[in-house]
């Protein structure tokens, strides 16, 4: 309840609106290319949360649940036309979300985003090579 409304709106913008806009822009191309690069193993998603309590944690949890429901619905809808769909909700990750939630830059146990992403990528058989 201590979080400013503008900060909560920013969290929703980053965690809900940005993925929806990217999905809208990318999905047609993903479907068109599915025969070229998709593994054919079907749609899949991975969800793992690492949210610690804080001023914006409730809003962030709500935004992540919306993402998860979207991923599940999209996976069901595309069941007959498999593409490789991977939705990541990494463990506690070093980001400004932690700082906005009141934890500062030194969040205990936080991983670099590329390390967290690479671990999930390798778990699904990818190379784990991130920028």
From TrEMBL:
Domain of life of the organism encoding this protein: Bacteria
Name of the protein in its database record: SDR family NAD(P)-dependent oxidoreductase
Source organism of this protein record: Siccirubricoccus deserti
């Amino acid at each position: 309840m201590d979080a400013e409304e503008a900060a909560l709106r920013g969290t929703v913008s980053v965690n809900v609106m940005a993925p929806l806009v990217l999905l809208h822009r990318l999905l047609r191309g993903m479907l068109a290319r599915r025969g070229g690069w998709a593994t054919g193993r079907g749609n899949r998603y991975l969800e793992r949360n690492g949210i610690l309590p804080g001023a914006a944690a409730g809003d962030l949890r709500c935004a992540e649940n919306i993402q998860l429901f979207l991923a599940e619905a999209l996976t069901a809808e595309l069941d007959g036309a498999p593409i490789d769909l991977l939705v990541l909700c990494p463990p506690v990750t070093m980001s400004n979300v932690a700082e906005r939630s009141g934890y500062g830059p030194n969040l205990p146990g936080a991983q670099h985003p590329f390390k967290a992403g690479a671990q999930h990528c390798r778990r699904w058989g990818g190379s784990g090579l991130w920028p």
